[in-house]
Amino acid sequence: MNIILANPRGFCAGVKRAISIVENALKIYKKTIYVKHELVHNQYVINELRKKGVIFVEKISQIPDNSVVVFSAHGVSKKIVKKAIKKKLIILNATCPLVTKVHKEVSACSKKGIETILIGHKGHPEVEGTIGQYENKNGKIYLVESISDVDNLTVKNTEKLNFVTQTTLSISQTKNIISSLKKKFPKITGPFKEDICYATTNRQKAVHYLSKISDIIFVIGSNNSSNSNRLTELGKELGVFTILINSFRDIKKIWLKNVNCIGITAGASAPEILVKEVVEYLKNIGANKYIEMIKVKEKKFFRIPKKLLIIKKD
Ligand code: 0CM
Ligand code: SF4
Predict the structure, then answer these.
(1) Is residue 87 in a domain?
(2) Which of 33, 37, 249, 253 has an alpha carbon within 20 to 30 A of 218's alpha carbon?
(3) Taking the mean position of all CA atoms in its chain, how far away is CA 240?
(4) Is residue 299 one of the residues assigned to a domain?
């Protein structure tokens, strides 16, 4: 059995920034750090931060007044920001800048009274945060998840309409939904392609390569992680037995019967340590040493807020 590691895989710039914000906040504020929602959708990351005293809450009302709150990488609605201000919370915003970009677009449309269509998954926190940027009572933001949602959609004014997308969607499915939107509403405006982020795009491309050589693909990630689920879905669509696993502990030996090549990738919120553990486990049960797929260097880096910078002394 050979092991092939996808590249790129794992942590993206937005996740690294979110984790640095919380870790630096722990050092600077020296008091309990509350995080609205899971900072990133990964059980291992959340458990590690819990061990350091971080408290994760779903509602702002669960946080004592004057505390420090971090908004998760997926972003929050304007209503949530107002609630946090009302409680006099110190706000540290770990929303990924690429999500904030979409927020700004929706907010601008809301101000101009341009109705907006969001392509995304109902109930996902990023979708809730993006919908929550549209505050104009005379207009609306509509959520579509599929082509049939587009078919059933009616808007107030087909002449003034914009679309945006969730950042972690399937590239191919989104392309098809956008085509049907453009067919139904020829005047619709929107991003050049979609708002799917660089990390999601690159990890999906890597799964395409991986699928050509793998008999099985392990996607390391948690089950509430949208981008990790999209990688799993893609592997399956490409005809490879693909499974989302939290860690090596989820692997069943029976899956590896008659397997020559094991492909491994990791979602944007899954740390490299989990990849290393999977590789070690597979080597222990007889796999050869791993081969890394041609490396694509991701250069994206997002700065953390200035007030959280820790100056290192020599
Ligand atoms: O959005 P998704 O569920 O993929 O979130 P994640 O925490 O797994 O990945 C990073 C992000 C964002 C936004
Ligand atoms: Fe940002 Fe994309 Fe990472 Fe989400 S997956 S945090 S949008 S870079």
Answers:
(1) yes
(2) 37
(3) 23
(4) no
Q: Cβ(288)–Cβ(59) under 8 Å?
A: no
pLDDT score for 313: 57
Query: Shortest CA distance to 135 belongs to which of 108, 157, 158?
Result: 108
| Total of domains in the chain | 3
Ligand 1 and 269: CB distance under 6 A:
yes
Query: Does 107 appear as a known binding residue?
Result: no
Q: Which ligand is nearest to the CA of 12?
A: 2
DSSP symbols for 63-95 = SPTT-EEEE-TT---HHHHHHHHHTTPEEEE--
- 102 CA from centroid of ligand 2 (Å): 12
Catalytic residues: 126
Domain ranges, residue 224: 2-11+198-292
Summarize pLDDT for 27-50 with one digit per residue, the tens.
999 899 999 999 999 999 999 999
- Phi then psi dihedrals of residue 168, to 5 deg: -120, 35
Backbone angles phi, psi at 171, to 5 degrees: -60, -45
**CA 152 to the chain's CA centroid:** 28
Same domain, 22 and 50: yes
Ligand 2 geometric centre to CA of 14 (Å): 5
Ligand with smallest separation from the Cα of 18: 2
Protein residue with least CA distance to atom 2, ligand 2: 197
Q: How far apart are CA 14 and CA 97, in angstroms?
A: 7
Phi, psi values for residue 169, rounded to 5°:
-85, 170
225 lines ligand 2 (CB under 6 A): no
> From the CB of 99, is ligand 2 less than 6 Å away?
yes
What is the mean pLDDT of the segment spanning 3-27?
98
Same domain for 123 and 92: no
- Residue tagged 């309409």 (tokens): 161
